[in-house]
Amino acid sequence: MTQATSEARVTRDEETGEVSIVINITPQPTPRPRVAKFGTYYPATYKAYIKELDAMIPPAAVALEGELLVEVEAVCQPIKKSKFTTPAGDVDNLAKGVLDMLTKKGFYGDDRQIVDLHVTKRFPRDDEQPHFRISLLEIE
């Protein structure tokens, strides 16, 4: 079974039940909330990023209900003129926004279901564009 939008592709392996999601967006780390006189807020650029993710990811066809193994690969924008060999942003912060959106879209009920999480980040290879590749698998 496959669900697709112009920016995200969702597939489910009928044999294993694994859900694979590819989201064609440049990964951004979740920043710390800003504290102001009247409460906390996220920067406008991050709010726009979350809104874009929300528009790209279709609602889940079926919610996963058991314990989950989740793998997130963030293929990040290359850095021009940098001495660093890895993308900016902590892996946990890169995964947070997209995982929160998958919860919102009904792919699983709660973050508590995730018992095994693997997150990697890298730069694109050759003609590859920045994106997320996510795998969700119920484990026994």
**Strand tally:** 8
The total number of structural domains is: 1
Question: According to CATH, what is the class?
Answer: Alpha Beta
* DSSP strand content: 25-35%
Strand order of the largest sheet: 1-2-3-8-6-7
Q: How much is the average pLDDT?
A: 91
In the CATH hierarchy, the third-tier topology is known as 60s Ribosomal Protein L30, Chain: A
Report helical residue fraction: 10-25%
Largest β-sheet summary: 6 strands, mixed
- Rounded to an integer in angstroms, the radius of gyration calculated over CA atoms is 16 Å
The backbone outline, from C-alpha atoms, is globular
**Poorly predicted ranges:** 1-5
The number of distinct helices, counting runs of at least 4 residues, comes to: 2
Query: What is the first-to-last residue Cα distance?
Result: 23 Å
Q: What is the H level of CATH, i.e. the homologous superfamily?
A: Holliday junction resolvase RusA
Class by alpha and beta content: alpha+beta
Topology order in helix (H) and strand (E) letters: EEEEEHEHEE
